[in-house]
Design goal:
With about 325 residues, this protein is an all-alpha fold. It folds into 2 domains: about 140 residues, Helix Hairpins; about 120 residues, Alpha Horseshoe (Serine Threonine Protein Phosphatase 5, Tetratricopeptide repeat). Helices cover about 75% and strands about 0% of the residues. The longest helix is centred in the middle third of the chain and has 70 residues. It is elongated and about 95 Å long.
């Protein structure tokens, strides 16, 4: 049994003891505030909250690692395809350039995701440590309180047996006029937490790598609409362009890639500009493609797309 489930079991036991404590203290004497009880309840709530955070972090970490595995597999596919194309004398230079560009772009995406995974792993380790310390602090108090609970429960049981029976209120009667209305329905959630945002982004990426481009476009658009200034907003817009590129709708891909630079955070702007150039190559417009490749070199001299652009101008056989 791992530490997480040990702590979960501890919480279940603690909540059970607390319930027993309340039910066992229903004596006829007025209840007096119990500082120990209040402190325990506060710590139990804190423990429950920490366990919830840990479970959510573990779930997200697992999903992120699965996404990394899928991306790594796709990268291997690109690399193997590139190796085959480089040996094929009939392969077009544009196909080779596109594959090398895809490898660079995907490698960049993988590196970004690895940073997220490392951050989540450190958060999980920190939560593990806090939970262990909190559990070690609570358990001795619970053990002491258990003895008190059992004694009070026995005393109350004996006292209740000596008391005359009382009429039980009829709980089936309708509520009297002026009774408090039931709680209103909670509003529909229209925003995402940072955790939900990351998870939906990676779910959309998974759809792309599964070649379900229509579903991927839908998910990326939803994220942009819900969080237009989010960390991955420009990435979402970029991958919408990649979806249309993969669908060979190059004109629509140009339109989508062109939107990337409009976002506040646009670390995909260089990739998008390069892919617009590739779209024009696919459409047979080499002049426009070369203009855009020059823009990549001028605007983004440190971009990982620079080797691909230089490769194009060095060969220029496409």
């Amino acid at each position: 049994m791992n530490r997480h489930w040990t702590i979960t079991l501890t919480l279940t036991l603690a909540l059970g003891l607390t319930t027993l404590f309340f039910s066992g203290c229903s004596s006829t004497k007025p209840a007096e505030p119990d500082p120990i009880q209040q402190e325990l309840l506060t710590q139990l709530k804190s423990l429950g909250g920490e366990i919830g955070k840990l479970q959510a972090t573990q779930d997200e970490l697992l999903e992120m690692r699965q996404n990394l595995t899928q991306m790594d597999s796709q990268l291997v596919i690109y690399q193997n395809t590139l190796a085959e194309k480089e040996k094929d004398s009939k392969a077009k230079d544009s196909e080779i350039l596109e594959l090398r560009g895809n490898i660079d772009i995907l490698s960049s995406e993988i590196q970004s995701l690895r940073v997220v995974v490392d951050t989540l792993r450190m958060a999980k380790d920190s939560l593990d440590f806090r939970l262990q310390r909190l559990t070690e602090e609570i358990l001795p108090k619970l053990e002491q309180k258990t003895v008190v609970v059992q004694k009070e429960a026995q005393a109350d049981s004996a006292q209740t047996a000596e008391m005359p029976a009382q009429d039980t209120p009829d709980k089936t009667k309708p509520a009297e006029a002026g009774a408090a209305p039931s709680e209103p329905a909670k509003p529909v959630k229209t925003t995402l937490t940072a955790r939900e945002y990351r998870r939906q982004y990676n779910a959309a990426l998974n759809k792309y790598f599964q070649r379900d481009y229509v579903s991927a476009i839908k998910l990326f658009n939803e994220l942009i609409n819900l969080w237009p200034d989010g960390t991955y907003a420009d990435n979402c817009q970029y991958w919408i362009g990649e979806c249309y590129y993969s669908l060979e709708n190059y004109q629509q891909a140009i339109e989508e890639f062109s939107k990337v630079s409009a976002f506040p955070e646009n670390n995909k702007a260089d990739h998008a500009l390069f892919k617009i150039g590739m779209c024009y190559l696919q459409l047979g417009n080499k002049t426009e493609a070369e203009t855009l490749f020059h823009q990549v070199m001028d605007k983004y001299p440190e971009s990982d797309m620079i080797p691909r652009v230089k490769e194009y101008f060095a060969g220029k056989k496409m």
